[in-house]
Design goal:
It contains one helix and eight strands; from the N terminus they run αββββββββ. By secondary structure, the chain is α/β, with parallel strands linked by helices. The strands form two sheets. It has a four-stranded mixed β-sheet, with no helix packed on it. A four-stranded mixed β-sheet has the order 3-8-7-5, with no helix packed on it. The relative contact order is 0.16.
């Protein structure tokens, strides 16, 4: 009987620890992409969170490189690379100009469609926003 009580206390302790960690993640915003550095700009929610409205520039990549959003969604791009980048639409709709490390660019998508964009400094750096 004592062994069963000890086992239940151990499991209850483990459950309490897991719930504490989960609560901390909800409050502080855990990184939803393991292995990637956490964003450093204050207030940046990070890609993959509710609304999928944020994109990182990381290792010369837009991450994620394709997002699907609803009309009137404001997307924020955060440059987490040490070098400078741009977020420039292929159809001339928007252009961030040069954004350096920890700087952001925002754009609200008001019309439906597929919008492709690129960095003017790096030919292989491109992404897509699909607005439903």
């Amino acid at each position: 009987m004592k062994h069963l009580q000890k086992s239940l206390r151990s499991r209850a302790g483990l459950l309490a620890l897991l719930l504490s960690v989960a609560a901390l993640c909800l409050i502080s915003g855990c990184d939803t992409y393991p292995g990637l550095p956490s964003p450093v700009a204050p207030g940046f929610t990070g890609p993959g969170n509710v609304g999928i409205d944020d994109i990182r520039i990381l290792n010369n990549t837009f991450y994620p490189d394709t997002v699907i959003v609803q009309r009137y969604t404001r997307i924020t791009w955060l440059n987490t690379d040490l070098g400078s980048h741009t977020v420039t639409s292929n159809d001339g709709l928007f252009d961030s100009g040069t954004i350096t490390n920890n700087e952001t660019f925002e754009y609200m998508f008001e019309t439906r469609g597929t919008f492709t964009y690129r960095c003017v400094y790096f030919a292989n750096l491109h992404g897509t926003v699909i607005v439903e």
